[in-house]
Amino acid sequence: MQKLEFTLSAGPVEVTAATLAGLAKPIQYHYDDDFKATFRRVQEKTAEILQTRNDVLILQGEAILGLEGALKSLVTPGMKVLNLVQGIFGKGTGYWLRDFGAEVHELEVGYDDAVTPEMVEEFLDAHPSIEMVCLVASETPSGTVTDVSRIGPMCRDRGILTYVDTVSGVLGMEHRTDDWGLDLCVTGPQKCLGGAPGLSLISVSQRAWDKIYSNPAAPRDSYLSLLDWKEKWLGDGRFPYTPSVSDINGLEAALDQALAEGIDQVIQRHVDARELTKAGARAMGLEFWARREESMSACVTSIRLPDDIDNAEVRDLARSKYGVMFSHGQGAGNLIRLSHMGSTAGGFHSIVGLTALGRTLLDLGMKLDLGMKLDVGAGVDAALEVLSEQRGRQRSAADALV
Exposure winner among 136, 143, 299, 390, fewest CB in 10 A? Predict the structure, then answer.
C-alpha cells in the first residue's frame, strides 16, 4: 500500500505542527492552578469562535457525546419537536428524540437536498405548539448545509428553542450563536477548526438551562450530564471527572491559530477551497451530489458516482494507490467526498485531491455520457486558474493593509 501522504477525509483532518506541539505538552495534574487557568482560557476562546456570551462547556468525548447529552438534557416526555432531516445525522437526531419521549414532527428532504427556511416557516405557522427545532447546520456525509442564519432568528422570535448540530459547520460557514438567538449548539475540534477528535464543545443559553433544570430526566452524575459541568465546574471549580489535559492543550493550539488568522478569514478560506474544487470537478466532467449548488457545504465537496462504481472502492483505491485518503458516502448515498477543512482548506491540497480522484475514477473505468473519458487535465487547469485568481485577490487585500 502506498504511504499515506494526504488526508483529505471528512474528519479527523490533518493537524498543523503547532497543534501537534500543543498535544505534546507535558501532562499536568488537572487541579494544578496552571491547568485550571488553561481550561478557563480555552472556554473563553471557544466562546469567541462560537460568537457567544452564553455558557460554554467542554465535555471529554467526541462530539456525538455532546449531541446526545444535550438532547437528553432538553427533551421531556411529550415535548413537541420539529426535526429537520436532510442527511444521516439529522435522521439520527430523530431516533434520539423518540427514545427520549418527544412528540416528533419531521421535515425531510432527499439527502442531496436541503430543508429551506420557507419550509420551516410554513410548518411553524401551521403548528404553533412546536417547542423546539432541531437541525444539522452542516451534514458532513452528504456535504449540504442548512440556512441557520434565517431559521435561528425565526425560532427565537417565536419563543422556540433551537438545538444545532454544527460539528462541521463552525469555521466552515458563518455561525453567530447570539446574533441568531441559538440556544444549544454543539461542535467539535476535528473538522474546520483543524484540531484533534475527542472533545465536545457546547454553548448553552439561559433559555436552554431553564428547560434543562425543569427536566427531571436531565442526566446527573453521568458522562452525558451538562448539569454536572454547570454546577461542579462553572459553579464550584470542580471537574465532574478527569479531563484529558492533552486534548485541552491541543484544542487551545487550534483555537489560537484560528483566532490569529481571524474567523472571517478562516471561513473565506474554506469557501475558496470549495469554489476551487467545484471548478476543477466541473471541468473534469464530474457531477455534484447536491441538487442545488447554493446548498453545497464549504467543508467537503461531494461527487455523485455512477451505480457501477462503489464509493468505498473509490476511497480504498485512492488510498492504496495514490496515498490520498478521501471519505465515502457513509450511508448518505453513492458519493465520494473531497474534504477541505482546517489546514487543508485552500491552496494545493484541493489540486492534489482532484488529481487523485480523477485518476482513481479512470482506473475504475468510469466514463462520462456518450462514453467520453474524464478529463483530469482540464479539471486541474480549471482549479489552478481559480487558485491563481484567489491568490491575486489575497495579495491585493494584503497590499491594501500596508
Answer: 390
